Amino acid sequence: MLLEKISKDFVQAMKSKDALTVSVLKMLKSQIKYREIDNREKQVTDEDVVEIIGKEIKKHEESIEMYRTGSREDLAKKEEEELKILKGYLPRQMTEEEVTAFVSEAIVKLGAEGPKDFGRVMKEVMTALRGKADGAVIKRTVEESLKK
Fold it and tell me: What are the start-end ranges of the H helices in 16-134?
């Protein structure tokens, strides 16, 4: 389970005195604990953990962009290092070609015919690919596929 791997890596980082990894994993474990509390003590699933990691990755990417806009390269580099650690816990991300193939199959399966079916196709694809592909890539691929 992903949560167990995070916990083991946290202990290992503490032993090796890797302050950056300890900091990132401590924040991640905290977010997971908040999710458990929100779920009324129900154990979080790997899907929940992947969703939490995805949200943290998005926050880090936005921070990097803001730091670069503000000419704070030192802070942007720190965020990038943290981002690498977080991405290491995500499942392998699908390539654009794999996403395109999946979207094409979904369009055929749903009988989608044009842009008016965007919502149905997005719902189907996002549900199936949650955590496996970037949402922006999925959205762009669905839009392009439905224009054809």
Answer: 19-38, 46-69, 73-87, 96-110, 118-129
- Residue 47 has, within 13 A of its CA and on its CB side, a CA count of 4
Separation of alpha carbons 104 and 145, rounded Å: 7
What is the CATH class of 2-87? Answer: mainly alpha
Closest CA to 52 of 20, 82, 29: 29
CATH number for the region 96-147 comes to: 1.10.10.410
Q: Provide mean pLDDT across the span 20-43.
A: 89
| pLDDT in the model for residue 62 | 94
- The C-alpha atoms of residue 37 and residue 131 are separated, in whole angstroms, by 22
Say if residues 100 and 123 touch (Cβ distance below 8 Å): no
The answer to whether the beta carbons of residues 113 and 26 sit under 8 Å apart is: no
Cα 39 to its chain centre, rounded Å, is: 20
Answer yes or no: is pLDDT of 41 > 80: no
What does the alpha-carbon distance between residue 56 and residue 61 come to, in Å, rounded to a whole number? 9
